[in-house]
Amino acid sequence: MRLFTIALLTVIFFTESHAQNHSVARRWNEVLLESIRHDLARPTVHSRNLFHTSVALYDSWACFDPVAETYLLGKVVHGFDCPYNGINAPSDVQAAQEETMSYAAYRLLSHRFVNSPNASLSQNMFDTLMSNLGYDINFTSTDYSGGSYAALGNYLAENLIAYGMQDISNEANNYANQFYQPINDPLVPMLAGNPDITDPNRWQPLTLQVFIDQAGNIYPINTPSFVGAEWGQVPAFALKAEDLTIYERDDFDYWVFHDPGMPPHLDTMTQTTLSQQYKFTFEMVSIWSSHLTADDPTVWDISPASIGNVQYYPTNVAEYPQFYNISGGDPGQGWDLNPVTGQPYEPQYVKRGDYARILAEFWADGPHSETPPGHWFTILNYVSDQPLVEKRFEGTGPILSDLEWDVKAYFTLGGTVHDAAVTAWGVKGWYDYIRPISALRYMADLGQSTSPSLPNYHPGGLPLIQNYVELVEEGDPLAGANNQNVNKIKLYAWKGHDYVTNPETDVAGVGWILAENWWPYQRPSFVTPPFAGYVSGHSTFSRAAAEMMTLFTGDAFFPGGMGEFEAPMNEFLVFEDGPSQDVTLQWATYRDASDQCSLSRIWGGIHPPVDDMPGRHLGMVIGPQAFELAKEYFEGNSIVTSIDDQESPTLEVYPNPTSSNTVSLRFSGTVNSLDIDVYDSNGKLCLRKAMKGITNSNVVQLDVSSLNGGIYFAKVDDGERVFTHKLSILR
Question: Which of 22, 19, 20, 46 shows the shortest CA–CA distance to 33?
């Protein structure tokens, strides 16, 4: 029995024949996850969707709770004002909460997935759930003054939608980058080598015959753009101003929280320490791919008795060889006893080749993916369903109702994964680091860097490693008919898709291949995600979520001391046959699951160690930070959440509403220049104005004569801060 589903669920799932025992919040979370599985696989976008939906559910619950404090309703968040005048106390509090959260979630999700490749399927799920709950989808009023909880939900959704339209994500233009441009021409993986790259330290797009993302959607273009290159500026949940570094490139400010510093760069002229570290970290990816076969004779105990319980995580690249080695895995020492049963964990011996391939596929979240942040919501839901779990916040106090548990858990995890996305993609956008397929093929094209006395020497080439990285010699099967490949680099690695004709029955296996033809262990229509590698989003999401779940549940261990996932023989793998035996992934703790996820990206050929470890360290900070802020909301004593501190200038727009052709913008402090963008309620840019050279003034005039009547949102940037303000034009 598969405990977490990655496979495509059918719409029949959403007849909810089994869902009546779940809370309304859980049911909305399930339809959100299913909609993500059918949408484009964009971890940044769906982290934001998960967070904003969790806010819709949480605020709908908290506004009726005598202690908890709302997040957006009645607050100013990152400069966005969401007024709230209160509503009459209900006679049935839970019914009011459920009605409010259902309308809020319905309106928000209907908006967020309207442009999904499978929009009609998602909308049908939203409509069906509303019908099953007994609510009228045609009720659209936002006037809650008469005591309508449905109207309050619509009002909350309207403000969440408006907040999203001005939060830098560029939702109105399908989240497209506005400034970032890659400096490298695309790599065409179907062709040998990497002849057209300009800078081996920067990200390189890929051109495929057809690109199918991790959710199984065919992209309209075969050279996907960098997803979320400017995401570091998207307003976060618990990230703090003191953790922010701002860099500038190409007239854009790249925001980097918890800056991990520059990864090692390759010097093609000189053998430097940084170059050696660069070569080690990428070469380890090709070496680990040599494990990806059931013919590998190595057998491991993959139970918690031997896997997990890592005691130390290196903090610099020089320490990586002691953590990541040729045999794979990590130095986790396992656990002596299951703390719940008091008994030793039962060993489970499996082939390393099956284990590594399953990890690469399971944690890839594809095809039909809820993306890495959504994957941790499925894990959270799995934990919530376990009969041994006691739903006590932090493991103490009273047992919470299913509704309160789910709402608080989703809000906390939503804030966590959103902050993880803002942080990881802020790093990705600025450092713009290369992926393994580009780096390995490029270095292989240069030659070997072990010795000038050997053929095909180049200081930027791959170091030779016996049995893993060698030169092609005469008489080698790879030499070619006319010895054209003699002295090229060859790798002992996973052989690639040319060896798989029928994925239902064939396996590629491992063997010697020309390094110029190396492939990650991914589908040929996907190859590598369309964004920079450093740092690993999987590592950041997973460790942040694991830390959050440890704190939220008050227990580092899964309920019963172990979480499990079953991968049946010859049924689980997607682009080749396998595994060759039934395998059950097992984790004692949430951190063990996170560590396994991180290693899976190396076996999958997606990330080198240098992408992985800094992501883990970021997650160790992000998870607890998000948890502590969420806890403050639950206790009703939250502090200012915006990175704009209380001493920052404030913005007033007047008259507002107005029928005039001019409005005034007044600041609490003097400003010298402004960039003003005005969007309509659909997120369309309607007016752009740059005002330079303002002297000794805190009031400026804006001509709005070109705007029709309606609701608008002004985004004002004074060079240091970004303000947003709702503007009503009467015509």
Answer: 46
* Per-residue pLDDT at 366 exceeds 80: no
DSSP-derived letter for residue 163 is H
How far apart are the C-alpha atoms of 97 and 95, rounded to whole Å? 5
Dihedral angle at the C-alpha atoms of 516, 517, 520, 526, nearest 10 degrees?
A: 120
- 720 burial class (0-12, 13-18, 19+ CB within 10 angstroms)? exposed
d(CA 363, CA 43): 13
Of the candidates 640, 636, 662, which has an alpha carbon nearest to the alpha carbon of residue 650?
A: 640
Q: What is the pLDDT of residue 515?
A: 98
DSSP one-letter string for 527-583: SS-SS--SSPHHHHHHHHHHHHHHHHHT-SBPGGG-EEEEE-TTTS-SSS---SS-E
DSSP line for 190-253? TSSS-TT-S-TTS---B--SS-B-TTSPBPSSSS---TTTTGGGS--SS--GGGEEEEEETTEE
CB 590 within 8 Å of CB 549: yes
Q: Which amino acid is at 175?
A: Y
Q: Domain 11-177+337-434+531-635 belongs to what topology?
A: Vanadium-containing Chloroperoxidase; domain 2 (1.10.606)
Q: What is the architecture, at CATH level 2, of domain 651-729?
A: Sandwich (2.60)
Please name the residue that has the structure tokens 């009609």: 120
Lowest mean pLDDT, pick from 315-319, 424-428, 507-511, 658-662: 658-662
Per the CB < 8 A criterion, the answer to whether 148 and 35 are in contact is no
Ordered by start, the domain boundaries in the chain are: 11-177+337-434+531-635, 651-729
- Phi, then psi, of 624 in degrees rounded to 5: -60, -35
Closest CA to 71 of 145, 160, 158: 160
**Whether residue 640 has pLDDT greater than 50:** no
Handedness of CA 41, 591, 401, 20 (dihedral sign): positive
- The answer, yes or no, to whether residue 350 has pLDDT greater than 90, is yes
Coil, helix or strand at residue 601: helix
What the block records as the tokens of 319 is 């320490």
